[in-house]
Amino acid sequence: MAQQPTPQPETPQLLNQAFKSTMTCDEFNALLRAGDKHTAGTAILWLDGIYSARSGVNDFPQGWGRTLSQGVGGICAITVNASRPVIDIIGMIHRDYGG
Fold first, then answer.
1. By the 8 A CB rule, do 78 and 92 touch?
2. What is the pTM of this model?
3. What 8-state DSSP symbol labels residue 5?
């Protein structure tokens, strides 16, 4: 006798939550609190790409991904930065550590 297929959920599951280019630290932290580290990491890389394209940055120092993710995570963890746009923080990290 043939086995019946397993029913699939009616609503598809999204792999990543949506995020916007104006994402604030509070929105970024919400992703982390929800356990969505993959989307948070993707957001950082995507926003870094936007910043880099706008500012003409073509080269990145070794370990840049780690510098960027730790910098954004650390700065966004400070409560007074809750409304600060993540892309502004990325710009600051580029100026301070980008070489």
1. no
2. 0.80
3. P
Distances (CA, A) of 65 to 5, 48, 54, 80, 94: 42, 10, 18, 24, 11
List the chain residues with pLDDT less than 70.
1-16, 99
In angstroms, the Cα distances linking 57 to 2, 26, 48, 67 are 59, 27, 10, 16
Residue 85, both tokens: 């746009």
pLDDT score, position 23? 95
Partnered with residue 99 across adjacent β-strands are none
Angle (nearest 5°) at CA 79 between 77 and 84: 85
Residue boundaries of the structural domains of the chain: 25-97
